[in-house]
Amino acid sequence: MPLLCMKQVCKSFGKVQANQKVNLTVERGEIHALLGENGAGKTTLMNILYGIYQPDSGSILMDDQPVSISSPGEAISLKIGMVHQHFMLVPTLSVSQNITLGIKERGYPFTDRKEVDRKITRVSREYGLDIDPTAIIEDLSVGVLQRVEIIKLLYHQAELLILDEPTAVLTPQETENLFAVLKRLKEDGRSIIIITHRIAEVQSIADRVTVLRDGARVGCDNIGNVGEARLSEMMIGRQLDTAVRETSHQNRLNEAAVLSLENVSLNGRNVNILSKLTLELKPGEILGLAGVDGNGQKELAEVIVGIRRPDSGKVLFEGNDVTILGVRKRKRIGMAYVPDDRHHDGLILDMDLSSNLILNAHDQPPFARFHFLNDQVRRRHAEQTITDYQVKTPGVGTLVRYLSGGNQQKIILARELDGIPKLIVASQPTRGLDIGAEEFVNKLLLAQRDRGAGILLISADLDQLIKLSDRIAVIFDGRITGLLNNHAGIDLAEIGLKMAGVA
User: Fold this and answer.
1) Each residue's pLDDT tens digit, 382-403
2) Is 202 within 8 Å of 223 (Cβ atoms)?
3) Residues 97 and 214 in one domain
4) What's the chain's Rg over C-alpha atoms?
């Protein structure tokens, strides 16, 4: 008898049909992957199971008994727990307080916190999730925060754990540790659903996989019966056409640099964020920037595009000193910026698609005349962008918060690449995207390079950097620790040493 059966589940949001007669069966003691592109309906289906959304139709059975789950509280009472992609923790509270938030422990309101902490420690050690119950959430790393979320589910005695994109913000080492924990939970008889778009992870951890595409189930099988090519084809509805970097455009050494950084330094609170950093980027070149997150990549990007002003050093664009120019002026002379955080820095979520597309040019012709917006021109521009960039949306008036991550990223790229920029600073442009959207973005960057744009590609994905970059610079602690030519291939071990600060 399966632990969970979801039968013919349907859910719509306005004109968008997020789930169309979806069936999902999860056995007791298995790791089940829910695979699909961004916007395929994976998270919506799990939000229905967790009681956040109510289905329009369909049924849910637990241990062969029909259940109605109208809230997360009811889901928890059925021993269903969920770790969301964006963690639901209160930063100013301790680990222990977060885990027991909403629970009336014995002795409430005079809870014996030391006894609670001992219980949390016992649970965490049992599953290799060692953690200090007294630690404050805002002081912990992302990997540790995820442990807190999992311990919270175990403290609630969850038998079915739902993890939404659990590795999206983890390092490879943290991912390995997480998978070891999941295997231990499986051995203990618990069932786990992993929502993901990463095929390699599915193959390494899952027992079975269900694939969703455009809100509908397209297949379910044992992981041993389906290879990577078949899974990618099920996900995107076609064979993946991998972006390939041609080497014939690399020999531009004699051309003037489109971007030059001369001894750029940036100071933070009692720390040097960037230290006398010097770098040069040629037209028609992709310069990859590799490094562990938090070593100055974001700040460097913001110095280049004018969001921050360096404390010393110069930023040169086509040989001209632009160090004191603001963001708007830099964009007008040919700089484009794809930020690493599309929600906070790239989009206005409660503004519609057509308005987000013209944020850089809303006060210029043809979108504005005599300070008045031309709605007809704006709509036509949005409709053309939807076609050119293959944006999946109900219409040009859709708020961007209701688009999937991949489609939100396409909106940013379309806006920033409009006007044929000479320099593109692309920071984590494929973070959180599925293989189809990632393929689209990579091809777009290569096309911009081939037409002559200089591209600084900042990415935590070494495979992407090696695939696309002509040269790779490695940053550690705000300094460039190595500059590697990718003509004859790159030694991953060498990059790893330089990322750790070994010059």
Assistant:
1) 899 999 988 888 888 899 888 8
2) yes
3) yes
4) 25
